[in-house]
Amino acid sequence: MTVTTREAPGPVACTGSGAPPGRPAPWRWLTSVRTVIAQWAPAIPFLVTAGGVLIAAGIWLIRTSFAGPDGGWTLQPWRDIFAQQITREAMVRSLGLSATVATVCLAVGSVLAYHVSGLARRGRATAQALLNVAANFGGASLAIAMVSTLGAVGFVQLLVQDWFGHSLGFDLYSFWGLVVTYLYFILPLYVLLVLPAMSVLRPEWWEAVQAAGGTRWHYWRRVGLPVLSPFLLSGWVLTFAWSLGQFSVPYALLGETTTTSLITTRLGNFLFSATGGTNRFERAAALAVLLMVISALALVLYRLIATRMLARLEGAR
Amino acid sequence: MPSAVRIESATKTYGSTVALDDVSLQIEPGQMVALLGPSGCGKTSLLRAIAGLSPIDRGVIRIGDRDVTHVQARQRPIGMVFQQYALFPNMSVAENISFPLTIRRQRGPARAKRVEELLELIGMPGLADRYPNQLSGGQQQRVALARALAPEPDVLLLDEPLAALDAAIRSDLRDEIRRIQHRVGTTAVFVTHDQSEAMAVADRVAVMDRGRILEVAAPAEIYERPASRFAATFVGSRNALELPVGPDRVVRWGEAFAVPAPDTANGKALAVFRPEDVCITEQQGMAATVDVVVFLGAVSRVYLTVDGHTVHVDLPSRTAATFTPGQRVGVAVAPENVRVFAS
Amino acid sequence: MTGRAVPRWTLLGLWGVFLALPVVATMLYSVATVWRGQALPDGFTLSWWTQTLREPRVVEALMRSTWLAAVTVLVVAAIVLPALYWGYIRNPRIRVVMQLCALLPFALPFVVLAYGIKRLAGASELTQPWEASPLLVVLGHVALAFPFFLWPVDGAMAAAGVRQLSEAAETSGASPLSTLFRVVIPNIRTGILTGAILTFATSFGEYSIARVITGSSFETLPVWQVAALQDTRGNPNGVAVMAMFTFLLLFVVSVLIARTGRGEPLRLLPGIDHSNKR
Fold first, then answer.
1. What is the pLDDT, as a whole number, of residue C67?
2. What value does the mean pLDDT of chain B take?
3. What is the distance of C-alpha A172 from the center of its chain?
4. Residue C183 domain flag
5. Which of A167, B34, B35, B286 is the most exposed place for a label (fewest CB within 10 A)?
């Protein structure tokens, strides 16, 4: 007969002692260790793999970013990455790119999400499936597709040239080329993220605005957008973080050039090219930590918005 | 022969809430005991403790002559029926019912025969291959009952089994559960917050409040002579009046009744009497005015204003029909029908 | 609301065109004989397809990607299912922890994680032999793709009322393992399938981790694609073929999701979605 402890389904998530009564004091410590193990055992592989790997890698990177040539602690890698002009430019460009992409998503994607949410159930399901494909169509394949479309001899370039005479004047390898490329797969992601939020809008509210004599403009300005704004903002934040961390797409598109580089491609540059310098790995680590910090901040912001907004919604019921 | 279920001093706390407070109960084999009480009284906690789904902090639980306090649920000789049926959607009716047998590695003709027996018992012989989503709520609950009875458990546990059903089928299923339990002879514990359900179904009713068992008795006993104030007010419909205790230790209500006060009552006492025990007369008794007569079918409820209180009286409808609002009448209650408790 | 339907369909239609164009372009490139200056290619041929799909380097890359993705799915399922199940029936805190962990990949861009794992493995003598091993890539993929398995499966478990079913099974005498396989998994099949498909797709198309950890020694399909794209002497058509191939694979996959999902919304924002879907 084994003794097990289990969680009672009470409103309070309690640990429940489960210890058989009358056990002498020194053994109680052992029993609580057993309890903890029993309660977490099947989750250990997960915690070690998913949690452990992620956290351990993060910690290691932080350590490496401060590592000196003799194994000590130094700020040199950090000074280096901010000292180098190309790297500084890459940082600015990354932040600018991500902010631009996120903002376009916010402006355009929100409208698109609203329209998708208005589709009938089957249409919605189809749309979601398609958007899922698009959102996953990243990396190398996307770069290839973009080159095929908007590259120097891309389909659209040739089409415009053929039909209208002069060229489109669009450079895929410029800042805006990157924006368009990112938008291809990040816009669907944004729409999928904020789509559930659209169902928060009750039709009664629009009816109430009409009964009070208001127009669509009034509705959106005073009711719709204010209610949706937390969702849209958290969508912006996640999209920003996701854009910032993109590596495969810009790397596939731009390669190891140092012209239109981003934080991520600089990182790749430090890693892969042997001409990076003596402490290139440490500098790569520093860039990685910088990315982590920005993304972590974005995530914290996202959680804050999400919880506050949930609280507001619960109160509004 | 040892009692089928024996609970000794069971205690359970959730953080600062006491779910079970030193509860003791004995259930004889073949009996159906109802645990009755309002939400949060501990009846579900007690049931789950017997099942082994929620362990108790202190105390002993015995099934038969075996101490099962620290035995896991799946090793206890129990069968359980849940409020939301909990049928496995991926299995047919027959597979659901035979699940406990499959677990015990019972196979072949013996298992098939048992399933057939049980289907017969619950009155659904041809529905072995249906799936839960093709059954009505009542049918699903009956399959759940069959599943619980399949391994011939020592105790059958029912956690508010009728609460999720429509009112129309509730009473039918309630009587059928009773019938089946009688026929099979399994000891059963039935949790409910509906006192009419408890009284219709059980051999004995345990009234619970705030983690304690207040009294355990046959339904009629609890109804007629409740021992606790809580039972008196919770079970059945009643009139309850706070009345002063006279210097001669008698609780008097005008000409309606005069009853000796219990020893514990000081100053004020609570007098409780049933609507069907009130006599309405033309001349005698305490002065009252009829407010309204509510028709309830065979019985009608007459609401009266008496001495500033509202009293309701149940009478056969034909009799009640003779009263009109505003009419002046007299009321009286036989002293043996008034229960008095300390206030 | 026909007045509103017109702008809706216009907008969605435009977006649809925007999404379709690159696919069309890639398709054209993959079947074009020669394409000079005009709107459409001079001629069409399937030879690029047959050629590329027979090229040993491509086939090997394809095999490696498939193997990688399949192993990732298996490992993810094996670590997530027991943990999540336990979180439902015994220890609710597990679920909270898992949901938090699921946000970590968004904080750690893939390339960052890849580098971190590689350095970590290279740090101690015990793990050094695996520093550039594909198994480490699996680990990286598992750590980053598991949210895509977790969210659908979590949703499915909640919808199926796993807790109640488990109690019914337990009082019928079943052990937790038995319950997991006989009762729980059959009832969350859709969620598991969706999760497996999404995890597979994520791992299959992933470039950074494979590249950073193994360099070019374990060439997966995306690694091949990038190398081929940047190879100035290479043939653009072959590259287009594999991009089209990947796209078709993903497309088939999401059709499968749409059919198994039956119109249920994909829970992507774990913190926000359930409050609305009443």
1. 93
2. 90
3. 24
4. yes
5. A167
- CB-based contact (8 Å) between A54 and chain C? yes
pLDDT at C278: 26
Which residues in chain A are closer than 8 Å to B48, comparing Cβ atoms? 8
Residue C32 lies in a domain: no
Residue to test with chain A: of B20, B22, B57, B84, most A Cβ within 10 A? B57
- Cβ neighbours around A299 below 10 Å, total: 18
Tell me if chain B has a CB within 8 Å of the CB of A174: no
C15-32 residue pLDDT tens: 988 888 888 888 888 887
Residues B202-253 have pLDDT tens digits of 999 999 999 999 999 999 999 888 888 888 888 888 888 888 888 888 888 8
Q: Is B339 exposed, middle or buried (0-12, 13-18, 19+ CB in 10 A)?
A: buried
- Nearest C-alpha in A relative to B57: A18
| 8 Å CB contact of C171 and B104 | no
Number of domains in chain A: 1
Structure confidence by residue, pLDDT tens digits, C72-84: 999 999 999 999 9
Between chain B and chain C, the number of residue pairs with CB atoms below 8 A apart is 66
* CA max distance for chain A: 93
CATH of the domain at A219: 1.10.3720.10
Q: How far is B74 from chain A (nearest CA, A)?
A: 11
Number of domains present in the structure of chain C: 1
Question: Distance between CA atoms of C232 and C236, rounded to whole angstroms?
Answer: 9
- Residue A130 located in a structural domain: yes
Q: Any idea how long chain C is?
A: 278
Q: What is the pLDDT of residues C88-136, one digit of tens each?
A: 988 899 998 998 888 788 777 777 788 788 777 777 767 777 667 788 8
| Residue C44 belongs to some domain of the structure | no
- The verdict on residue A117 lying in a domain is yes
Q: What is the pLDDT of residues A236-285, one digit of tens each?
A: 988 898 898 888 888 888 876 666 688 888 887 877 776 656 777 788 88
Question: Which residues form the domain of A281?
Answer: 53-316
Residue C51 CA to residue C241 CA, distance in Å, equals: 10
pLDDT digits (tens, 9 = 90+) for B163-215: 999 988 998 999 999 999 999 999 999 999 998 899 999 999 999 999 999 99
Whole-angstrom distance, CA of residue B207 vs CA of residue B235: 9
Q: Which residues of B touch C173 (CB under 8 A)?
A: 74-75, 100, 103-104, 151
Regions of chain A with pLDDT less than 50: 1-22, 316-317
Residue A281 lies in a domain: yes
Going by C-alpha positions, the residue among B292, B321, B288 that lies closest to residue B305 is B288
C92 touches chain B (CB under 8 A): no
Q: Examine residue C15 and state whether it is found in any structural domain, yes or no.
A: no
Full residue range of the structural domain in which residue C226 is found: 57-271
Give me the residues paired with residue B251 across strands.
B245, B259
**Cβ contacts of B55 on chain A, cutoff 8 Å:** 5-6, 8, 16, 18
What distance in Å separates residue C57's CA from the closest CA in chain A?
17
How is residue C85 written in tokens? 């199940």
- CB contact under 8 Å between B89 and C187, yes or no, is yes
Interchain pair A184, C230: CB under 8 A: no
Which chain A residues are closer than 8 Å to C201 by Cβ? 136
User: Is residue A82 classed as helix, strand or coil in its secondary structure?
Assistant: helix
Contacts with C, A 266-285, CB within 8 Å: 267-268, 271, 281, 284-285
CATH code of the domain covering residue C116: 1.10.3720.10
What is the rounded (10 degree) CA torsion for B111, B113, B115, B120? -170
Per the domain annotation, does A273 fall within a domain? yes
